[in-house]
Amino acid sequence: MTAAQTATLGFPRIGPNRELKKAVEAHWAGKLSEADMLAAAQKVEEEAWSLQAAAGVDLIAVGDFNLYDQVLQYTDALDLVPERFAGVQRGTARAFMMARGAEGKPALDMTKFFNTNYHYNVPELRVDMEPRPAFTALLSSIKRGVAALGGARAAAVILGPVTFLHLAKFTDGGSAAAGRAALLAKLVSAYRALLRDAAALGVAELQLHEPALCAAADSAELRALYASAYPAILEALPTSGAGAAAVNVVSYFDDVDDATFAWLAALPRVAAVSLDFTRGDAVGVLARHGPLVCKTLGAGVIDARSPWRADPDTILPLLRAIRSAAGPATPIRIQPSANLQFVPVDAACEKGLHAARPAVAGALAFAAQKLRELRDVAAALAAGADGAAAAKALEAHAAAWTAFRASTSGLSGAACAAATEKRVAALGDGAFKRALPFEERVKLQLPGLPLLPTTTIGSFPQTPEVRRLRNQLKKGTIMQEQYDRAIDTHIAYAIGVQDALGLDILVHGEAERTDMVEFFGQQLEGMAFTENGWVQSYGSRCVRPPIICSDVSRPKPMTIREFKVAQSMTDKPVKGMLTGPITILNWSFPRADVDRKTQAYQLALALREEIKDLEDAGCRVIQVDEPALREGMPTRPQQKEAYLKWAVDAFLLATVGARPETQIHTHMCYCEFQDCLGAIARLDADVNSIENSRSNNSTLESFAAAGYKHLLGPGTYDIHSPVVPSVDDVAAKLRAFATAFPLERIVVGPDCGLKTRKWHEVIPALRNMVAAAAALRAEVAGTSGKGHGAAAAAAVRSNGHCC
Ligand SMILES: CN1c2c(nc(N)[nH]c2=O)NC[C@@H]1CNc1ccc(C(=O)N[C@@H](CCC(=O)N[C@@H](CCC(=O)N[C@@H](CCC(=O)O)C(=O)O)C(=O)O)C(=O)O)cc1
Ligand SMILES: N[C@@H](CCS)C(=O)O
Ligand SMILES: [Zn+2]
Predict the structure, then answer these.
(1) In which residues is Zn(2+) bound (predicted)?
(2) Using a 6 Å cutoff on CB, does residue 458 contact ligand 2?
(3) Which domains does the chain have, with CATH numbers?
(4) Of 579, 623, 625, 626, which is best to mutate to test ligand 2, by the most ligand atoms within 8 angstroms of its C-beta?
(5) What are the tens digits of pLDDT across the range 539-565?
(6) What is the whole-number distance in angstroms between the Cα of residue 494 and the centre of ligand 2?
(7) Which atom of ligand 2 sits closest to the CA of residue 627?
(8) pTM for this structure?
(9) Which residues contact 111 (CB under 8 A, 6 or more apart)?
(10) Rounded CA gap, 3 and 646, in Å?
């Protein structure tokens, strides 16, 4: 039998050595012209095509590339831009302005792309908007792709209209559902033209990416949107001759429900339906539906969000199940489950890992390696996914996994889970519950703090000097001792600034951390980290997710040295600063052989030990960040509760060993809180600092309505913007907060960490925040009015001259 066809759905665009990041940031810094930046970007794009072609991929995604964010690209191309950007000429400069903001023009909001750690710019729509499409950059990229690969190998990636609207927010005060329906009706002609123009360039296939299809199971509204738009969009496409590209509707990040699949299978003009077989139960859906008639099944069997090689023990049974459910006549195409932008580019570059841990490195497959896997898996499918020929097609993969397993503990997933449960059981009644209830312990915590205590979320600017230092340490041009001393000067600066500004709870500033999760990955046993395994997080910003590869444990204290240095420099309480178990798990690549709950518990047990050591070092307030709690939540209601149960338990396991007088903070950002408020309350954190500055008071109102009893730190200003909030801006926020939540339970801070800002932005912003808190305190004391507020502000200003 001939091998099945293979296809890609997109390739990392940041470049093997972050060439795109460097070009874009150089352009922003005025060091590279727009033309030179675009030339650098096109080189990255073209090299990705060459790599895919050389790997023998049959259908290669084109049009998936963009300079900042794919959703933003559509907002700009459709000209669906908020009023404040309407006067700016469309194109690259306007897209960057919408992403990053400008004086008087706040940036578009940024939030998680479905349940990933990639963040997109949220379209801000109004029901009365009129799309004015001009997809110049997208079509020119598709045209270059066709020229480079030949039309027969090019598949044009198009962000589907329903997903675009699903990801948008409506700012006109009306119903978002009505807004989506109205705009979708207007988008039909824009998409008809886009598909026709893309097809006319000679591509073999139009891939309509619609991850929102996976949410249709629980949304009659989404189902209605799909049903109303798709037939109308597709009917105008030529069915033969020039411009008659095949249409592939692509879903990912979960399965689709039976009704949605039946609808897709019956859609006229659609030649292929793509499903994600790495999450949910797409095999079950297919089995219940039966063979696709006259359509190809795009089988997303290579996990686009996992850095691990395909494991024959998993993939061969999966292929057999798919073949059996799809029936012998349905053509099956082997694909990654989604765009490969969620994994790093090339595992072959990881020389350090290959040398130090060859068995781990050998079991990895980043985007470049996954291209080869497509071919091997297609060959295994052609061989019936059984017997010697199938095994031969995947023999290198089997050997890699055998070596990997031999290098780790050898415990099966179940045995590993049982061993972890045993450690938890040994903690007895105190495993998940603090010694005193919140109402009693809060009275013992941090005596002497004022009303509206001020703090920050943890990180301070990661300056070029800090990054240079780390680079020197890596290259061996400075020793650890010198590095530590230099880090201490950054800590001293951060403490000096905070003391001078009059903040109440200080932080050491996280200067020693490249990235919070990467830092803990480097401290913990059982985690591997890469040198060049960058994954785009948003825009030009990247992260290097650690890779969990065996049982996690804490060989030595992780944060105590820096805490002690910081606390020795001030009498104010310094927060111990940790990343929570769920966030470490969700922002790492988990191991494939053990369930996520067990991995979370192992991380929690390590953090529990760290909290004990922090307390022994004199720490009275410890923040355990959980910005990714919500992100890991499955879309399906049935799975959501199970996840939240073990996720919250993992946080409790990490934190409840703290003494009653230790104040435990947590922090959450970049997410919706409304649909997991019960879980947030169950975390039982004494203080929860949440991103809030862009949501008016609605988040706070939801917390209040849900009867949230703990202290809350709603962000008082947006840290993504270089704009410095005034005293009045922050005071107005605090007054508004007071209308929704008891003032005596509010902690004052920014929205998130300040690592991406500059000191010259941070200092005045915090000075104004402290002044605003003082002004509010004065107002509450009843001695005030505006004059006292101004006097308090002046007093704070006069001692804040550290810069
Ligand atoms: C809170 N957020 C986080 C998320 N996920 C995480 N894993 N971590 C997070 O903090 N998800 C949600 C949000 C996303 N937010 C951000 C915010 C900022 C960044 C970011 O700034 N990333 C940096 C990379 C940071 C880093 O590790 N830098 C290294 C330097 C590496 C380097 O480039 N070295 C140079 C030499 C430098 C020199 O000599 O000057 C080189 O090798 O050539 C470090 O600090 O050492 C970014 O720039 O993209 C990400 C997500
Ligand atoms: N403590 C971290 C939290 C980021 S979500 C920081 O301040 O960067
Ligand atoms: Zn944050």
Answers:
(1) 667, 669, 691, 752
(2) yes
(3) 19-81+123-345 (3.20.20.210), 420-521+552-799 (3.20.20.210)
(4) 625
(5) 999 999 999 999 999 999 999 999 999
(6) 15
(7) 5
(8) 0.93
(9) 119, 120, 122, 670, 671, 672
(10) 42
